[in-house]
Specification:
The complex is a heterodimer of chains A (258) and B (340). By secondary structure, chain A is of the alpha/beta class. Chain A has 2 domains: 78 residues, Defensin A-like (2-Layer Sandwich), CATH 3.30.30.60; 155 residues, Cobalamin-binding domain (Rossmann fold). In chain A, the strands form 2 sheets. Chain A has a 5-stranded parallel sheet, with helices on both faces. A 3-stranded antiparallel sheet of chain A has the order 1-3-2, with helices on one face. In chain A, helix 2 runs parallel beside helix 7. Chain A is elongated and about 70 Å long. Chain B has a 9-stranded mixed sheet, sandwiched between helices. A 5-stranded mixed sheet of chain B has the order 11-10-12-14-16, with helices on both faces. Chain B is α/β, with parallel strands linked by helices. Chain B is globular and about 65 Å long. In chain B, a hairpin with a 2-residue loop joins strand 5 and strand 6. Chain B has 2 domains: 221 residues, Rossmann fold (3-Layer(aba) Sandwich); 96 residues, no CATH class. In chain B, helix 4 runs parallel beside helix 9. Classes of the chains: A alpha/beta (258), B alpha/beta (340). At the A-B interface, helix 4, helix 5 and helix 6 of A face helix 7 of B.
Amino acid sequence: MTNDDSPTRIPSGIDLHAIGPYGDTLGDGIVQVSFSLPIPASPEAREAARRLAVQMGLNEPQIYREADLGYGFSFWIVYGKCRHHVDVTRIVVPKITSAALSFEEINALVLDNAGRRLRIVGACTGTDAHTVGIDAILNMKGFAGEYGLERYPAFEVFNLGSQVTNGTLLAKVRETGADAVLVSQVVTQKDVHLSNLAEWVDMVEADGLRQGLLLLCGGPRITHEVALELGFDAGFGAGTTPRQVAAWLAQEWVRRKK
Amino acid sequence: MNLTPLALPQDARVVAVVGCSKNAGKTTTLNALLAGLDDVLNPGVLSIGIDGEEADFWLGVPKPRVEVRQGDFVATAEAALAAGTARIEICARTGGRTLLGDLVVGRVTGNGSVLLAGIRAKDDVRAAVDAMRRLGVTRVLIDGAYQRLAAADPEVSDGTILATGAVLGTTVEQVALRTQEFLQRLRVPASDIAGDHALMDAARSASRFAFRSAQDGDVVVADSPADPVARRILESGDAVVAFPGAVGDDLLLQCAALSAGRLRLLAQDPTRLFLSVREAATFQRRHALRVIRPIRVLAVTVNPFSVLGWTLPREALVEAVRAKAGGLPVVSFDVHPHPT
């Protein structure tokens, strides 16, 4: 999320075409990595750790810490100089840029423009039973000192809970005439969330509901880029608060209606 | 050898490249097709997801860039133009707006890579294809996203290429089997029975279900198979059910449970079907599943390299997929396994 107004400053003299890490002096490339190896600490393991660091793109790797973890495992902290640079000027990252609005401003924006409450359907879909994310955003008590969407007079919320099939979610969208759907995905083993989310977007398309519906997804490993690639309108990652979602929903709904 | 003519017949004007999964080789297929289109003027290219980024959003590994040549057309979000190396002149705006700016159609004036982004819905695809046609584009290639099939909708494209690859499994047999399952969905047969199209028309015009009794030919339109008028038909014996929206396992099970006879369930096209392999097979042991508009599957492309780190023997994989592909052309484009 970028809906705060804190300034982003870039120090002078930085070459944005070749950005790399630094430790002591600009451009030295110094990084620290730590990892475990499934072999006991030994001179051979030390050399293996050093060679791995070279393959990770580090010059002059130096072992700063080694520890035998027992049971045949060892732990390593390695310093080195990263060989790689990134051209920041060629990076394009879609960001959610809605303004930060207060609880009252969000309600006023929706009710003044829609003349009614927006209907929001939310669910944790597929085999996923982790409702902590969707509940944090939707439940009245909210999260991080902010009310959830159920508390907003501007929203009528239908929280379907966990392990909801895409078919059941679609039926609820049809039944309620929803304006927006929030899908939460926490479980990511074998990328099950990606196939589930992709199927959901295709189902909405197949049912002819896509144009009138705002599609959001969220979860600790969801980013806005991934959401857009999957066909959603927005994606919200870890640390998102209910008011950020509410502000985006209100502003995007109004923008589309104009 | 140029394999493009094998995978891309001349009469397929708007072609979707869809994948059996993420990282199956859609963009590689797209690049190979574009490179082989020497004899076609002004090909256009767009993506229903995001394509041409340097690295996979999820895995962080390098992805093939989308390479375009002078004279090609692209549809993308305006701000995404800066992310590629190709020089592009904006020719039209489709009217779509995204977080990366307006959706535009541009003509390539200098060879290079392009980031395709901003098109997420079928209506966006239609608008971009229409804008390209007005600019004289004779052939459009649509790159899919993940395993999404929206671009394969026969109302959007008139041919589909399926990309499959080693990312689906660690053995040739696993990949071939999963590809076959995907093809079975794409190639659900069209109904050739008189009256089925009219029944779907009735369902579409009402955006509801339409039911026809095989006994007396009665037709009713209802909100659900559980509606009393629908149940009367389903419980009286053989029947036909048409539904223009998304058909999932829940609906299949509901229809089968209510039916006293044999059912023919009609979907608009295969992109409306969201059925598990097991439920689809169980349903079709007693009933029939048909579509009104079939997808014209043009070819299957096979990528022997998995982004997850393994490689399968190319020839064996092609042969195994071909054995399951029901006579479709199966080709494997020769690409480097880890493009940079």
